[in-house]
Amino acid sequence: IVTVNCARLLKADHHATNGVVHVIDKVIATTTNTIQQIIETEDSLETLRTAVAASDLSSLLESEGQYTLLAPTNEAFEKIPRETLNRILGDPEALRDHLNHHILKSAMCAEAIIAGLTMETLEGATLDVGCSGEELTLNGKPIIANKDVLATNGVVHFVNELLIPDSAKTVFELAQESEVSKSTDLFRQAGLSSHLT
């Protein structure tokens, strides 16, 4: 699937006497802002703006190149426990891994993302793309709230749920999501959960 500034190419290579015509499915708007400028001006990305500033990723997001940012909205940050959020925001390494897990190495418009695709993030992990009806899913969840916000150096999709990589989780959080969750409960009952967090 070929896109032009996130407009889908419907028919290509119509030759005319004075050139070539390609038919697309929407009007292409002028794009002037970088990904960083979109973060700075969008009210629903206020928490992300703070996180990006704390992680020193702003230089990457305003640099030349082509990236895809899966931008967590304020709503996405509100869904996780305050204790977990404060821990990630207070740990520069975990915060950087967390944000890099929301950035893809190339610009991917929604039209060009095919279900069954595995996409690699800057953090080094992968995201599985699928579909639920007409909605795209990431790791099985239809969490894309707003898609195809174009920037001069890529594209932004707003997501309403955080994608937290394993590298930004504590041992306790990883264990709770795995086959050893019962063992985790025993550690907690024994008063040893602080060692896992």
TrEMBL record:
Residue ranges of every copy of the FAS1 domain listed in the record: 1-28, 32-163
SMART domains the UniProt entry points to: FAS1
Which BP terms from GO are recorded?
cell adhesion; extracellular matrix organization
GO: which molecular function terms?
Answer: cell adhesion molecule binding
| Any one Gene Ontology cellular component term annotated for this protein | extracellular matrix
Q: Could you tell me which InterPro entries the record lists for this protein?
A: Adhesion/Biosynth-related, FAS1_dom_sf, FAS1_domain
Q: What is this protein called?
A: BGH3 protein
- Organism equals Nesospiza acunhae
What does the organism's lineage look like at the top? Eukaryota, Metazoa, Chordata, Craniata, Vertebrata
